[in-house]
Amino acid sequence: MSVRIQPTAQVDGTAELGEATTIWDLAQIREDAVLGRSCIVGRGAYVGPGVRIGDNVKLQNYALVYEPAVLGDGVFVGPAAVLTNDYFPRSVAPDGRQKRGEDWQAVAVVVEEGASLGARSVCVAPVRVGRWALVAAGAVVTRDVPEFALVAGVPARRIGWVGRAGVRLVERDGAAGLWECPETGALYDEKDGALVERG
Q: Which of 28, 31, 144, 189 has a CA between 20 and 30 Å from the CA of residue 183?
């Protein structure tokens, strides 16, 4: 299956798009961006220069992914979510002159395999969102998110755990630190603030 690009989308000639990737209306893919296979980039979404995106990633409408972000396979970025890249944003330097690209160092948001960022969430770089984590809608992520963590709020804090299905895990009765997915039955062990899948 070939790449599908809507006529109103802007895709730089140096960008690399994997097989079966779809770019919808008014989306913009900048120079040297790399998108894997079977990605979907929604209406009005933005992918900055040199951004790296894995396979089967969904960027919903008006998601903004600024360079040098890295998104693993199977990542979901909800509508109007923002991945920033400037830890100390300013339009002008201390002397009053307008800042240009060479006046600052871009820092990355890294979103690992299977993680999801809810609608209108914001990830303030530099930050890492761990594998299969879930960031609630409207959350503001200012520090790293552990694998399988469910985070919410401003600033985002862990309020629970989720499994690969994205469903909130429940702790097994009488088995402290043993968590189960109510949808799949998969088991997870919690130790020292981290969650690990059982083989």
A: 144
